[in-house]
């Protein structure tokens, strides 16, 4: 998954404004206690981060 695809899915799920805020503030245990932004900066793949988001959020199956 490309990073642009990841952010497109985040915006489609959370909304244009909230996606970036959520990515900055919400800590995900599966990502070692990192936020989305931290995990991506630390080298986690976009696909791995998206899967972690999908595990804790009720993401539309079309976006999974």
Q: Span from first to last CA?
A: 11 Å
* Main beta sheet: 2 strands, antiparallel
DSSP strand tally: 2
Rg, Å, rounded: 10 Å
Which series of helices and strands comes N to C?
HHEEHH
Domains (count): 1
Helix content: 55-70%
The percent range for strand residues is 5-15%
User: Please, what is the average pLDDT?
Assistant: 96
Record the strand order, biggest sheet: 1-2
Q: Oligomeric form of this entry?
A: single chain
**How many DSSP H or I helices?**
4
Low-confidence region ranges:
none
Structural category = mainly alpha
Basic shape: globular
Provide structural commentary:
The protein has 64 residues and is mainly alpha-helical. The termini are close together. It is built from 4 helices and 2 strands, in the order ααββαα. A two-stranded antiparallel ribbon has the order 1-2. Helix 1 crosses helix 2. The chain has one domain (3-56). The mean pLDDT is 96. The radius of gyration is 10 Å and the shape is globular. The longest helix is centred in the N-terminal third of the chain and has 12 residues, at 3-14. It comes from Thermobispora bispora (strain ATCC 19993 / DSM 43833 / CBS 139.67 / JCM 10125 / KCTC 9307 / NBRC 14880 / R51). This is DUF3046 domain-containing protein.
């Amino acid at each position: 998954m490309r990073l642009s695809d990841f952010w497109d899915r985040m915006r489609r799920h959370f909304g244009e404004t909230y996606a970036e805020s959520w990515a900055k503030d919400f800590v995900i245990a599966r990502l070692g206690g990192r936020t989305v932004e931290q995990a991506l900066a630390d080298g986690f793949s976009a696909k791995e981060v998206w899967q972690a988001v999908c595990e804790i959020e009720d993401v539309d199956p079309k976006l999974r």
